[in-house]
């Protein structure tokens, strides 16, 4: 890395000595300093800014993507913090006069999917006049980069500076349902890493708002942060009453009407957001006789126009009873059949799963954890543990396996000479990963940012049975012959094909054939 930096420095120095202007621009209006900042190359950033002076570099005109040397630093921002040397150079630019609130056409789009912070565009230049414009602080908000957001706020970024649609940073944070970012915008000294329960209800009076964030701000459409909480994206909301109560306690107005004359409560009623309607009416102290109750309309049941002579039996109940029957038959014949060591353990044939005699359950668990705010893509990981006894000797193996759901993951085998030692380590890991005690596993309580146990009643220990279905019936059909043939073909094809994809392809062929006949 040192030699690479030295080579870059030597090439840049050579070009300057040969008379190449350090701030010459290309067809995009971008200079070498802009590109160096985009790639956060400290060697070149420092070199070129020293050639023109830091004060000139701080106030250089924006390119066609509205990037300055300062705002270009955040073009490729992720959830990871900036390097120390780049942060130092960044702060030096602000001190030298760089505008930390520069609106830039950053390569992101607001996502319409819950849990997805933004859509990232793989573009080096965005010059369309209609492209959205955001500040560096908003870029940090959309990337979930609390460290960079904190640095910008403490170095002079305006907590109320809006985007091109007059949406404030707080509106964007609320729209993302990011209560940690909301708290940071309220108090620049807030440390998300030390907040053990950021998503739980905040005790009244326990949080101090020290910033000048405007809780009553309205965007170009007259929306407030409460409007964005009610309707953060098309057809979906988080119904986050904890965030609503938090904003209300700190002074966010609840009854402001937008440009269409609609308050947040009226919007919630129109969108049938029952939980938020109830919470808003409680905060607004709406009299009982004036409270609005949401009556959700049920979908219209489909009709096949067939007149049945008698009530149709419930296929749900029939299926449930049949599955219980074959499940019982399976347990009667071999109730230990699926208590098998994981194939990765290497003890499939030579080992057996140990049972906790006191609880009547095996030392065989699977746990999962989900965190959408982790990194660029979030995490969905699993953790599996088994205690396996060797059939031929007094040896106990603690098998652990972990990784991302859908992958094989990594695994480890730890041998113990006694069951007590294996159980002790099993219990210790279980406590560390889940926040629960194994002794009280049947009363498992999910803990924030910890693994959750796959419910024991859903984790059946029975071998999958081959279910034989008799689809023949003596009851005469009231459908036309063509419809009878179609339904029979669909039932037979979908039950015999090996994969869902093949089944869907076959259904498509049959439906096409039917439509051609009719």
Automatic annotation (TrEMBL):
Q: Which residues form the WGR domain?
A: 350-451
User: Do the record's keywords include Secreted?
Assistant: yes
Region called Disordered, residue ranges:
329-348
One GO term under biological process is:
protein poly-ADP-ribosylation
Spans of ANK repeats, please give. Answer: 132-164
Q: Which GO terms describe its cellular component?
A: extracellular region; host cell presynaptic membrane; nucleolus; other organism cell membrane
Q: Which InterPro entries does its entry note?
A: Ankyrin_rpt, Ankyrin_rpt-contain_sf, ARTD/PARP, WGR_dom_sf, WGR_domain
**What GO MF terms are annotated?**
NAD+ poly-ADP-ribosyltransferase activity; NAD+-protein mono-ADP-ribosyltransferase activity; toxin activity
**What range does the record give for the signal peptide?**
1-17
* Xref: SMART domains: ANK, WGR
Q: Its principal location? A: secreted
The subcellular location is:
Secreted; Target cell membrane
Keywords, comma-separated and alphabetical:
ANK repeat, Exocytosis, Glycosyltransferase, Membrane, NAD, Neurotoxin, Presynaptic neurotoxin, Secreted, Signal, Target cell membrane, Target membrane, Toxin, Transferase
Query: What Pfam families does the database record attribute to this sequence?
Result: Ank_2, WGR
Q: Which PANTHER family match?
A: DNA LIGASE (PTHR10459), POLY [ADP-RIBOSE] POLYMERASE (PTHR10459:SF108)
- Would you tell me the protein name for this molecule? Tankyrase-like protein
- Organism lineage string: Eukaryota, Metazoa, Ecdysozoa, Arthropoda, Chelicerata
| Gene that produces this protein | tank-1_2
């Amino acid at each position: 890395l040192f030699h690479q930096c030295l080579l870059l420095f030597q090439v840049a120095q050579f070009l300057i000595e040969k008379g190449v202007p350090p701030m010459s621009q290309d067809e995009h209006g971008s200079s070498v300093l802009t590109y160096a900042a985009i790639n956060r190359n400290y060697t070149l950033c420092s070199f070129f800014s020293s050639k023109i002076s830091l004060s000139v570099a701080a106030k250089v005109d924006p390119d066609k993507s509205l990037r300055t040397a300062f705002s270009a630093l955040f073009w490729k921002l992720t959830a990871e913090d900036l390097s120390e040397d780049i942060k130092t150079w960044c702060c030096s630019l602000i001190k030298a006069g760089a505008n930390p609130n520069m609106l830039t056409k950053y390569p992101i789009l607001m996502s319409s999917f819950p849990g997805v912070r933004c859509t990232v565009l793989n573009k080096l230049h965005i010059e369309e006049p209609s492209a959205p414009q955001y500040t560096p602080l908003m870029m940090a908000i959309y990337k979930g980069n609390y460290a960079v957001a904190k640095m910008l706020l403490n170095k002079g970024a305006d907590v109320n500076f809006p985007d091109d649609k007059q949406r404030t940073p707080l509106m964007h944070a609320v729209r993302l349902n990011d209560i940690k970012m909301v708290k940071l915008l309220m108090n620049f000294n807030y440390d998300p890493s030390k907040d053990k329960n950021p998503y739980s209800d905040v005790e009244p009076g326990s949080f101090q708002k020290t910033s000048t964030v405007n809780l009553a701000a309205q965007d170009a459409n007259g929306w407030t942060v409460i409007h964005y909480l009610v309707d953060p994206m098309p057809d979906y909301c988080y119904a986050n009453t904890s965030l609503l109560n938090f904003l209300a306690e700190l002074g966010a107005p609840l009854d402001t009407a937008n440009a269409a004359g609609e308050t947040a409560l009226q919007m919630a009623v129109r969108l049938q957001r029952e939980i938020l309607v109830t919470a808003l009416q409680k905060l607004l102290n709406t009299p009982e006789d004036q409270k609005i109750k949401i009556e959700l309309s049920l979908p219209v049941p489909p009709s096949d126009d067939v007149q049945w002579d008698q009530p149709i039996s419930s296929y749900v109940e029939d299926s449930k009873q049949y599955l219980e029957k074959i499940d019982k038959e399976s347990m009667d014949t071999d109730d230990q059949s699926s208590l098998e060591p994981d194939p990765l353990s290497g003890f499939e044939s030579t080992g057996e799963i140990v049972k906790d005699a006191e609880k009547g359950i095996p030392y065989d668990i699977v746990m999962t954890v989900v965190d959408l705010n982790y990194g660029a893509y979030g995490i969905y990981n699993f953790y599996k543990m088994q205690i396996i006894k060797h059939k031929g000797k007094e040896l106990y193996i603690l098998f652990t396996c972990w990784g991302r759901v859908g992958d094989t993951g990594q695994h480890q085998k730890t041998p113990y000479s006694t069951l007590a030692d294996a159980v002790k380590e099993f219990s210790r890991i279980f406590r560390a990963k889940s926040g629960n005690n194994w002794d009280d596993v049947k009363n498992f309580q999910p803990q924030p940012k910890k693994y959750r146990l796959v419910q024991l009643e859903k984790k059946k220990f029975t071998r999958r049975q081959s279910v034989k279905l008799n689809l023949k019936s003596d009851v005469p059909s009231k459908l036309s012959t063509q419809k009878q043939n179609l339904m029979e073909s669909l039932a037979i094809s979908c039950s015999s094909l090996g994969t869902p994809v093949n089944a869907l392809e076959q259904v498509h062929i049959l439906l096409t054939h039917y439509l051609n006949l009719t």
